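Re: [help] complex structure
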Amino acid sequence: MPELLSLTFFSHSVNKVARQLIGTTLLFKGVGGRIVEVEAYHHTDPAAHSFRGPTSRNAVMFGPPGYAYVYRSYGIHWCLNFVCEPEGSASAVLIRAIEPQTGLAAMRRRRGLADERLLCAGPGRLCEALGITHAHNGLALDAPPFELFARTGRTEIVTGPRICITKAVDKPWRYGLKGSRFLSKPFSPEA
DNA sequence: TGCCCGATTAACT
DNA sequence: GTTAATCGGGCAA
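Output below.
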């Protein structure tokens, strides 16, 4: 069985952790799969929620690493982030897509009749499939309902510009599993 | 206080 | 390609 991630895994630079998270297995209440796409958000980055300082929404980002930051996007969807770096850095990794592996029936039920490729291909879709909401904001990642298992074997990673942002668009802080068909959007050029 | 916009998605034309 | 759904934060007044 792969190694369970500890909180110290998250205490490094947000781009390093983002890269390390590709291939990691994420389970929430026993449902989930392999992480295939993430994006890094550093507090000095105008696109980050923490850029303009703490608010009630982003408070968790200013706390210690290894905790879940869940926020509402466009007033509709939930998005899951992992807080990284030493406490106070207010940096986090947005989990954008996973490859559905465990609990497919539960994911399909929550998402409706979506085909498997689209079950978790996007931050909003992923949270809906796993049943993650605002109620889980601030939970530790090394204890139930979360389970995170280190990747095993060789992992080929591709990078590119982040998606659906309007600031700091040039930063190549999107990371993906090379060749995965479960990405929210392809990386270009897809090698 | 009010208005605009966004780390999105699905359902249109 | 375009647009609605829907709400917290930023910023102008």
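Chain A has a mean pLDDT of 96.
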